[in-house]
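Summary of Year 1 activities. Much of the first year was spent building the evaluation harness for sequence design. The harness presents a backbone, in tokenized form, and records the residue chosen at every position. We chose the following record to illustrate the format because it has been used consistently in internal testing since the harness was completed.
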């Protein structure tokens, strides 16, 4: 009997067909990703956003530059598209945090007050608050996501759900404080 709700069941990360050696390798990779998110989530998320959106921008730049100036245009367009796309990706991390905060504030306000105009206003206000404080929340969000992934990995390897939850919560808390302290040290270093 599990004390945790079925929403936290690992089936979302481990489909039924993943088992044996392939499932174990997949679980180990997810375990490494989870620990990365827990202890260095800010760097991973921002780096991943820069890379993914940068590659999309490079593809667009290559196509556009190549159609206008040929091979030279494709090379210049690829580099410029990658850099511009990467910068847009970094911006999207903050906007995404704002959207998440605004959306959940809207839902909560709508549920509690049953007033659509009030829910929209609260959602919009918390969108801007979320964008403004996203750098403070990023450590917490990545540590929590990493903890959830780690929980699924531990359950997959046979650890009891309650024990998996305790380990995941403790590591997520430690990871949050490690990330926060690392950010504060970086801020102090920049002020010197």
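For this record, the design step produced the sequence shown next.
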């Amino acid at each position: 009997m599990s004390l945790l709700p079925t929403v936290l069941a690992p089936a979302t990360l481990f489909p039924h067909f993943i088992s044996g050696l392939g499932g174990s390798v997949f679980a180990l990779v997810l375990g490494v990703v989870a620990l990365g998110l827990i202890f260095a989530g800010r760097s991973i998320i921002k780096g991943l956003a820069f890379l993914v959106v940068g590659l999309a921008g490079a593809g667009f730049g290559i196509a556009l530059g190549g159609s206008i100036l040929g091979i030279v245009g494709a090379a210049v367009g690829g580099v410029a598209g990658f850099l511009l796309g990467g910068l847009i990706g970094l911006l999207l991390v903050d906007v995404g945090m704002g959207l998440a905060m605004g959306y959940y504030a809207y839902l909560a306000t709508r549920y509690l007050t049953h007033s659509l105009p009030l829910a929209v206003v609260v959602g919009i206000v918390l969108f801007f608050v979320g964008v403004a404080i996203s750098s403070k929340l990023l450590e917490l969000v990545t540590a929590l996501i990493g903890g959830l992934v780690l929980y699924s990995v531990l359950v997959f390897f046979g650890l009891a759900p309650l024990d998996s939850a305790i380990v995941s919560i403790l590591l997520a808390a430690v990871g949050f404080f490690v990330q926060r302290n690392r950010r504060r040290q970086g801020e102090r270093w920049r002020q010197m």
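The two ends are 55 Å apart (CA to CA). Quantitative recovery figures across the full test set are reported in Table 2.
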